[in-house]
Amino acid sequence: MTQKELFENFSYLSDWEDKYRYLIELGDALPPFNEADKTEANKVDGCMSQVWFTFDKKDNAFYFNATSDAHIVRGLEAVLLTLINGKSGKEISSFDLEAAFKKLGLENHLSPTRRNGFFAMIDRIKKIVAEN
Fold first, then answer.
1. pLDDT tens for residues 31-58?
2. 63 sits in which H/E element
3. Is 47 among the catalytic positions?
4. What are phi and psi for residue 113, nearest 5 degrees?
5. pLDDT digit string (tens) for 6-15?
6. Is the separation of the CB atoms in 114 and 128 below 8 Å?
7. Nearest 5°: CA angle at 25, between 41 and 124?
């Protein structure tokens, strides 16, 4: 799915229940995550749920994979991956993920702990990009 398709799909969903279901569908569609990668080194701190990220870098572009033990968080991961996968470190660092989050209409419907977890995931991604 492209960013454009992601934004279009969310724009068609007017109520939170539909967006919530769509987030869960997105999370369910994430590629499989290797159980061996569920390590402390790949774990995201600051999330109430268990969250892990791995990445590959090919031709200066980053490709992340993620998983969580919470369905809604897996959906948020899928949103993030749609927004950043295949981009260079410079593109990811300069991309306003917070603005994208608001544009999707998610900021008013997630609990403070889920929102904090989402931003912890963004921080982790930006740290990975800065270090690699």
1. 999 999 999 999 998 878 899 999 999 9
2. strand 61-68
3. yes
4. -70, -40
5. 999 999 988 8
6. no
7. 25
Sequence-separated (6 or more) residues with CB below 8 Å from residue 96: none
Cα–Cα distance, 29 to 52 (Å, whole number): 16
Single-letter amino acid, residue 104:
L
Residue 6 in contact with residue 19, Cβ under 8 Å? no
Among 103, 107, 79, 109, residue whose Cα is nearest residue 11: 103
Distance CA 42, CA 95 (A): 22
Query: Which residues are CB-contacts of 55 (< 8 A; sequence separation ≥ 6)?
Result: 62, 63, 64, 65, 128, 132
Instruction: Please pick, among 26, 44, 47, 81, the residue that the annotation labels catalytic.
Output: 47
Could you tell me what percent of the chain has a pLDDT over 90?
Answer: 66
Secondary structure letter of residue 85 according to DSSP: T
**Token pair of 30 as six digits:** 């994430």
